[in-house]
Amino acid sequence: MTTIYIAEDQEMLNSALSAILELENDFNIVGNATDGKSALSQTTALKPDVAILDIEMPYLSGLEVAQQLRILKQDIKIVILTTFARKKYFEAAVNAQVDAYLLKDSPTDKLVETINKILDGQTIYDSNLVSSILTASKNPLTPQELKIMKEFSQGKTTQEIAESVFLSNGTVRNYISSILSKTGTHSRIEALNIAKKNNWID
Amino acid sequence: MTTIYIAEDQEMLNSALSAILELENDFNIVGNATDGKSALSQTTALKPDVAILDIEMPYLSGLEVAQQLRILKQDIKIVILTTFARKKYFEAAVNAQVDAYLLKDSPTDKLVETINKILDGQTIYDSNLVSSILTASKNPLTPQELKIMKEFSQGKTTQEIAESVFLSNGTVRNYISSILSKTGTHSRIEALNIAKKNNWID
DNA sequence: TAACTGATATGACAAATGTCATAAGAATAA
DNA sequence: TTATTCTTATGACATTTGTCATATCAGTTA
Q1: What Pfam family is a match for this entry (chains A, B) (predicted)?
Q2: pLDDT score at A199
Q3: Is the per-residue pLDDT at A133 higher than 80?
Q4: Above pLDDT 70, what percent of chain A?
Q5: Does A105 contact B155 at a Cβ distance shorter than 8 Å?
Q6: Residue A35 main-chain phi, psi, to 5 deg
Q7: Half-sphere exposure of A6 (CA within 13 A, CB side)
Q8: Residue B180 contacts A where some CB pair is shorter than 8 Å
Q9: Is residue A185 left, alpha or beta, with left meaning phi > 0 and alpha meaning psi from -120 to 50?
Q10: A73: domain range?
Q11: Mean pLDDT score, A40-48
Q12: Residue A83 in contact with residue A105, Cβ under 8 Å?
């Protein structure tokens, strides 16, 4: 019998998954949460064989929960289950040595199958995810430019950005000018729209 | 026996709901789709008793599907199932005379319960939704201001907006100035951030 | 009716934004 | 070693943006 813990903040999916996995003869749902903090404390207490973790949850993200569980060296298989095919998320998941990374854009059969495979020692990364990351138009912005973009995405003015990143006003304007040119735009808002569409920023 | 059709673009939830509702003795899932267009053509063909419609789907939104079904005067109970507690969506749903509006932030039990109630002739609006709409800080922008805001959210410049809405450049600037003052901000980006947080725009 | 709000407009002004040329040091790649 | 890229910076310039005062006209509300 395999014990499973589910952390998913969307109630509908959370309860639906619990019900479905319970139907499998060899699975037993031992608990579930809708936020990361409860998920972490309960998985450490209940020690299930498998934890299914959503990424975007209140208090602690599923990725942070996974990291903690690895730091605690708990013997647990981790499945990250998310809507987002974001490179950043995927990289963090790989670093946390999760056993599977699955998109919610897969049917439940796939989840069951995945759980069985990771119990077998395999590591499963959603193939749609991997290909979508590879085909994603890659970010042409330098780290510094990205940093500046995140600043102005909050609505900060050039001067505020300059102060917050310890650069001169002119340098910040140069970076922005470069961002605009790389995105083929002529204003911060347009640049932000492009960056969001391409998942360069949230 | 009640026949049910499910339209939900997130595969995981779609298949999970199908499986769960199938478990109920008196429910029979007769079809499901992950986009609005198939949902509309199949519900008109299969004539299920109940259609569960997600809002945000490719090609046609669940709300549009609901509208069409009402125009066609098909005898069908409609449940809108969505993540979003947006006033606009809710109003559109009420106008389309849907039988229930449920948030994905409710457990599956609630869905089953809701389906049974609407089959009984009741109309069910998620109580969390209704209260969240009532408490939502209401939009202080006039229709015209909102229109202008949508324009600049696309990154348009004052001049472009002026041309697209047939106003003078100065008038557009006045509107924007008024928007900034109402949102307590000093730049378009800040104003957009506030508006998004409060769901005044998408 | 009087007061208010909304839509529209102009003109003037200060501040912010975006563009360019130019430069220099550091790091990295060829 | 040379070429390229990244980070940082300045100065100058044109344009855009945001603010204010002011005004007219049409509705709506008190």
Answers
A1: GerE
A2: 82
A3: no
A4: 98
A5: no
A6: -150, 160
A7: 22
A8: no
A9: beta
A10: 2-135
A11: 97
A12: yes
Put simply, whether B78 touches A (Cβ < 8 Å) is: no
Angle made by CA atoms B67, B72, B73, in degrees to the nearest 5: 95
Q: Does A155 touch chain B (CB under 8 A)?
A: yes
Q: How many domains does chain A have?
A: 2
The per-residue pLDDT for range B153-164, each reduced to its tens digit, is: 999 999 999 999
**A111, A135, A159 - which closes a domain:** A135
CA of B189: nucleotide with nearest C1': D17
Q: Which two tokens stand for residue A86?
A: 């974001």
Give CA–CA dist B52/B32, Å, rounded.
Answer: 9
Q: Is A202 inside a domain boundary?
A: no
**Residues A55 and A93 reside in one and the same domain:** yes
Summarize pLDDT for B28-78 with one digit per residue, the tens.
999 999 999 999 999 999 999 999 999 999 999 999 999 999 999 999 999
Specify whether B21 is located in the same domain as B95: yes
> Judging by DSSP bridges, how do beta strands A27-33 and A2-7 pair with one another?
parallel
Evaluate if the CB of A173 falls below 7 Å from strand C: yes
Of B128, B89, B122, B78, which is closest to residue B106 (Cα–Cα)? B128
- Find the residue closest to D19 using CA and C1' atoms: B177
Q: Which nucleotide is nearest to B180 (CA to C1')?
A: D18
Domain assignment present for residue B202? The answer is: no
Strand order in the sheet with B2-7: B27-33, B2-7, B50-53, B77-82, B100-103, B124-125
Cα separations in angstroms, A42 against A5, A28, A33, B47: 9, 15, 9, 45
Helices (H), chain B: 11-23, 36-46, 62-71, 87-95, 108-119, 127-135, 143-153, 158-165, 169-183, 188-197
Tell whether A25 and A125 lie within a shared domain.
Answer: yes
Is A39 in the same domain as A122?
Answer: yes
Q: With contact defined as beta carbons under 8 Å apart, do B65 and B112 qualify? A: no
Q: What pLDDT does B137 receive?
A: 59
| Per-residue pLDDT, A136 | 64
